[in-house]
Amino acid sequence: MSALPAARAAHATPGAPGALAGTPATPGISATPGASATPATPATPATPATPVHQIRAAHTGTTVTVYQAYSPDLGLPAARDGRFPPAWKRERMTWIKPSFLWMMYRCGWATKAAQETVLAVEITRAGFDRALAGACLSHYAPRVHADRDAWKESVRSTYARVQWDPERDPHLNPLPYRSLQLGLSGPLSRAYADEWTVSIRDVTPLAREIHGLLRSGDTGAARALLPVETPYPAGPLPHLGA
What we know:
The chain is α+β, with helices and mostly antiparallel strands. 28% of the residues lie in helices and 21% in strands.
């Protein structure tokens, strides 16, 4: 797929806030003393809260898009050839991120050293799902692991790690729900580079365009260019706290 529409085509959400403390105003009446009574404006219907741990991504029935950022000497050949070059270190852990905005937070809108080229990497859902099924959390979580020894054993015996980091808004402020980072090592890192990858695109120009709009104050236009990321149907992932 091309995970970004047209020009853009893969690593806690609280409920609605409660009422403020204080004396409730009479329904339909202005709370300002001496003001004439005015009808109350109907409230906007509540929308379901975003789950604290949820994978959101651009995806099709067979692929999912994740993001990574590299120096131009590695990122540009990868985008040109649609595959990772030999210089891409397959023996190292690599972290993939389904969230475009979390990637922007991580690379500073493609301004950080060795992260000037942002890649949208379209991979097979089969590979992504395989990694999720065999992953473990990168940290100990009492509600997930029986004890610390059990967590350490899962770290020793798996090739995928998951971190849940605060999702970001277009201005890169943290949101009250989390975004997935998926770390791949050993055979999974090699499979990601050489088997799962369907396409690689350089989305640095898109990142810079969105960043420019935000800096000029046109948040609406910036939002319109963001990749559409919807809940990914991974199903329950209790071993990852989701």
